Amino acid sequence: LTHFAHHRLLGEAGDPDLANYLPFPADRKVMMRKALYEFMGLGAIRQFFGPSVNSSGARSRLFQIVVTQAVIFFGFYSAGQPLMYFALWLLPLVTLTKGFAQFRNLAEHLIRPNAPGVNERLRTFQSSFLERFFFAPLNFNCHAEHHWYTSVPYYRLPALRKLLRARAADYSQFAEWTPSYVAAWKEAIVKKTYKPFAASTR
After folding, report:
1. What is the rounded distance in angstroms from the CA atom of residue 161 to the CA atom of residue 178?
2. pTM value surpassing 0.85
3. Residues with Cβ < 8 Å from 57, sequence gap 6 or more?
4. DSSP β-bridge partners for residue 176
């Protein structure tokens, strides 16, 4: 439900991911604060215990997460390594995994100067094999295509991209063709801060 709301309200006040990308472009200090916030696990903790868990849908999802994590913990416990659940699973999940996901989200929705309003936050990424492996599994780099056709399964997104590029006279008018996530992160850093950093809501 949260992801559907993001698609429906991209760039608008009700977008649950808005606070993650709205403050950017920003200066290096803002970027560093965001990196510390996300990679220390504070973003994941805020999402887990934040006010959004009060809705019935969020409570149901939270229950599913708790049950899943309990099953995973039981697996570690059964192997005689209960502490490894925290060291090898939970800690990387709330720090590295969450941090990379938030920075990927930032790159995907960074504002495009002079782009049409409906597509001003849509980017699609070429990405190397290594970048796709670490940051964009399941063809996440075909991001604009996913926004346009949400019912297309992830394994069909590259074919969809190829089809759209063949038919569009100027693909760039619909989505920014960005060579890599790293290139987008560089664009997100400027000398002067536009807006103060706001903690992520996701």
Report:
1. 13
2. no
3. 1
4. 123
Residues in the chain: 202
Name beta bridge partners: 124.
177
Q: How far apart are CA 75 and CA 199, in angstroms?
A: 34
Closest among 90, 88, 99, 91 to 68, alpha carbons compared: 90
Give the separation between CA 107 and CA 47, rounded to whole angstroms. Answer: 20
Residue 114 half-sphere exposure toward CB, CA atoms < 13 A: 2
What CA dihedral angle connects 46, 50, 52 and 54, to 10 degrees? 150
Do the Cβ atoms of 194 and 25 come closer than 8 Å?
yes
Structural contact between residues 119 and 127, judged by C-beta atoms closer than 8 angstroms? no
The Cα 99–Cα 116 span in angstroms is 30
**What 8-state DSSP symbol labels residue 176?**
E
- Predicted confidence (pLDDT) per residue in 29-80, tens digit: 999 999 999 999 999 988 877 655 555 566 777 888 899 999 999 999 999 9
